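Action item from last week, closing it out:
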Amino acid sequence: MTPSRRRVLGLIFTFAVPACKKPYRVGEHVWVEWEEGKLYPAYILERTGNARFRVHYDGYDPKWDEDVTLDRIRGRVEGDTTPLPPPEKVLRAAGKPLGSGTASQVAQYQLGDRVKVRWRGSTYSATVVEVVDRDHFQVHYDGHESAWDEVVHRDRIVGRR
């Protein structure tokens, strides 16, 4: 193989192979670099540009939803995830001291739990984004805008998924 042909093939593999990677889509569960290089699971809510996506972080209030660039998305989430402790800025914004406990210690479901919720005769996948009290949970419906988030009684939660 000639050196010039080797360079051409090298360029093809450098630029074409990464472009063949399956693109991210609305509703996918992905890892996003958020703070201090830590990866957090999030759902893609919408595409906001060629390489920008609006994401909702699992287990966090919708006010933390943000637009992220493609370089901050580090891959798809496979299997269950163990929620990381919230970044300091989330705790400060909630007015909680670092390392504080919440009502989730006695509740059946906890922040970040992926659940199925009954709504008008159908069942939808959702994520618990806040434990309001022992029997009430604010949920974010996966793949839907945060405008659909609601506080539900534990009786409407069918179970974990």
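Closing note: The beta strands are 29-33, 39-49, 52-57, 66-69, 73-76, 114-119, 122-133, 136-141, 150-153, 157-160.
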